[in-house]
Amino acid sequence: PIAYVNGSFVPLSDAKISVLDRGFLFADGIYEVSAVLDGKLVDNASHLARLERSVGEIKLRLPETVERITEIQQELIARNKVENGLVYLQVTRGADKGRDFAFPKGDVKSSLVMFTSEKDIINAASAKTGINVITVPDIRWERRDIKSVALLAQVLAKQAAAEAGAGEAWMLEDGYVTEGGSSSAFILTQDDVIVTRKNSNAILPGCTRKAVVALAEERQLRVEERSFTVAEALAAKEAFATSASLFVQPVVAIDGKKVGDGKPGPMAMRLREIYVEFAKATAV
Ligand code: PLP
């Protein structure tokens, strides 16, 4: 596979970045993950809009325009012949002469790195079986709306999930679910209201979440953006998660207790189909 590093396309195994890169030293960087379907980028404008917002919030400048970044993503997909998979993109505040917390003085260029991976998102087995989630305390910082590469809390949460044989960790704060380690959390109440937490600094504004909410509302489905507890999720008809790498993923158990009948719910499966249709129709 080929990676992109600061203006060059190089074999992934030769792709290198300085040990002084601030992404490596301080997690001083932002990332994005876009899905690829049939060789095209899914909902990518939404991901790049979030990228622009995230970099702005940490006073980091993109080394390329969003238009150029899109071209690089597409060239990388073509070079790697990715039919179905993901494009990972990371921008960091570059490498200075040493390790200084304050921003580099003068003209240190930010680093831009991309690589791809193969993943058959549409036919993923877990979409048919659903996933179990565990709950963990949300120990992250207070600016979770920024898609920062500082992911240690999520690494630990998702490792705990993996060790418990679960597919995701739902993080809890003040008794409410914030979101999954790398996905947005949803439930469907007994009276058929789709509930997901309101965007704020407490969660990442998921691109898939945004599209699913809009697609549901267009179909006159009832959506409420508000917080919910684990008890409410366990009493719900259905639960599901959304992300660029999963689309819509049914959640069938939380901490070993069944949600609904313990099988993927019809609303989650319907929203998944609707999302796939949208993704295919709008991919570039
Ligand atoms: N929440 C968190 C913490 C994430 O890391 C992610 C994706 O990685 C999401 C939600 C889902 O966001 P998106 O739908 O934009 O992939």
UniProtKB/TrEMBL annotation:
Enzyme class: transferase
Cofactor(s) needed by this chain: pyridoxal 5'-phosphate
Listed EC numbers: 2.6.1.42
Gene Ontology annotations of biological process type: amino acid biosynthetic process; branched-chain amino acid biosynthetic process
Annotated catalysed reactions: L-leucine + 2-oxoglutarate = 4-methyl-2-oxopentanoate + L-glutamate; L-isoleucine + 2-oxoglutarate = (S)-3-methyl-2-oxopentanoate + L-glutamate; L-valine + 2-oxoglutarate = 3-methyl-2-oxobutanoate + L-glutamate
Keyword vocabulary terms for this entry: Amino-acid biosynthesis, Aminotransferase, Branched-chain amino acid biosynthesis, Pyridoxal phosphate, Transferase
Coiled coil segments of this chain: none
Pathway: Amino-acid biosynthesis; L-isoleucine biosynthesis; L-isoleucine from 2-oxobutanoate: step 4/4; Amino-acid biosynthesis; L-valine biosynthesis; L-valine from pyruvate: step 4/4; Amino-acid biosynthesis; L-leucine biosynthesis; L-leucine from 3-methyl-2-oxobutanoate: step 4/4
Pfam families, alphabetized: Aminotran_4 (PF01063)
Keyword Transferase: yes
GO molecular-function term, one example from the UniProt record: branched-chain-amino-acid transaminase activity
InterPro entries: Aminotrans_IV (IPR001544), Aminotransferase-like (IPR036038), BCAT-like_C (IPR043132), BCAT-like_N (IPR043131), Class-IV_PLP-Dep_Aminotrnsfr (IPR050571)
CC annotations in GO: cytosol
Function as written in the Swiss-Prot or TrEMBL entry: Acts on leucine, isoleucine and valine.
Family: Belongs to the class-IV pyridoxal-phosphate-dependent aminotransferase family.
Protein's UniProt name: Probable branched-chain-amino-acid aminotransferase
